[in-house]
Write a structure and sequence with these properties.
Layout lengths: L5 E2 L10 H8 L12 H14 L3 E5 L2 H12 L5 E6 L3 H4 L4 H4 L4 E5 L9 H7 L11 E8 L12 H13 L3 E6 L2 H8 L3 H4 L5 E5 L10 E5 L1 H13 L8 H14 L3 H15 L5 E2 L9 E6 L7 H9 L3 E2 L1 E2 L4 E5 L6 H26 L3
Parallel strand pairs: 1-11, 3-4, 3-5, 5-6, 6-7
Antiparallel strand pairs: 2-8, 7-8, 9-10, 10-13, 12-13
Helix pairs in contact: 1-11, 2-11, 3-10, 12-14
Bound molecules: pyridoxal-5'-phosphate (PLP) and threonine.
The site of pyridoxal-5'-phosphate has 13 residues, from α3.
InterPro entries: ArAA_b-elim_lyase/Thr_aldolase (IPR001597), Low_specificity_L-TA-like (IPR023603), PyrdxlP-dep_Trfase (IPR015424), PyrdxlP-dep_Trfase_major (IPR015421), PyrdxlP-dep_Trfase_small (IPR015422)
Family: Belongs to the threonine aldolase family.
Function: Threonine aldolase involved in threonine degradation to glycine. May play a role in the removal of L-allo-threonine.
Amino acid sequence: MVAKIVDLRSDTVTKPTEAMRSAMASAEVDDDVLGRDPSCFRLETEIAKLLGKEAALFVPSGTMANLISVLVHCDIRGSEVILGDDSHIHIYENGGIATLGGVHPRTVKNNEDGTMDIDLIEAAIRDPKGELVYPTTRLICLENTHGNCGGRCLSVEYTDRVGEVAKKHGLKLHIDGARIFNASVALGVPVDRLVQAADSVSVCLSKGLGAPVGSVIVGSNSFISKARRLRKTLGGGMRQVGILCAAALVALQENVEKLESDHKKAKLLADGLNEIKGLSVDTSSVETNMMFVEVEEGLGTTASKLCKDLEDYGILLMAIGSSRLRIVFHHQISASDVQYALSCFQQAVNNGVRNENATSGAD
Ligand SMILES: Cc1ncc(COP(=O)(O)O)c(C=O)c1O
Ligand SMILES: C[C@@H](O)[C@H](N)C(=O)O
């Protein structure tokens, strides 16, 4: 019998709080296609203000937020976007910018800290003199925090420098800010300052902020009106969407201040896991709510086997390859959950070692 479930698979797993459910039940709504749903309008107005942009648009998912943003910036056939080779847009969004938008991706290597070398970004920009044979570079995409790099933060200085490169070459800058509030809290930089250089930002409400559904795109009035039309084209125009936006407004009010605690608990677990022989976490790279746990070879088990064993204790997480586990914190993970998870990790590792010794005939 599992004592309890501790879901560390992602910050997308949170359940709506009672306050969110009550706000959803009493949300003021209207048809957001024929006019403006009042709760949606309130959310979009609040998010645009928070991020220092002219306007905002609520969309069903972060994937759609990125797709719409790239397609609005790259609305001419033959466009190319520069993005990280390990970015969410390039790896986890089914190549939508190409398959649906005809936008050509030009990847630049992501460094371990989530950045791309600025000289490599500049070198990837197509020379307009080669327009007969080259796609036309129109956009640079960054990701902050960077998911596949373990939730690493891009500094405001780095972001501003990429913004300068974009301006110098007449390009636009989009930030996949699925976890931009995590970055803002971890860096101690106001979120509007962190994204100041960007022409557009996608923000996930359904991750660390804990809303059940949705993302928001922010940008100029003209950009958002084009984005609104494209959202409808993609089937993302929603009617009484205020039911979802009401929950997101509660999330904004209640959960931004909890992000720092998520980050602290992640550090606590990382330190504890490093005390377990056969597991290692690079604690210097645990900057926000995510971490990667390396399962050392000598442990006699694999990441997926350990993942399965931990599930038997109620600890849910993701195996990334044969020797790496991913752990993601959110506001519904408590301090006692951290201690419970540590004890389960220790038991699962001990069991793995015992089974390994038994099969190898060791004492
Ligand atoms: C960095 C990043 N961008 C975008 C997304 C896409 O968001 P969604 O799952 O809502 O499509 C995710 C994860 O889901 C993500 O981690
Ligand atoms: C896996 C990825 O698509 C998701 N955004 C997550 O971080 O859980």
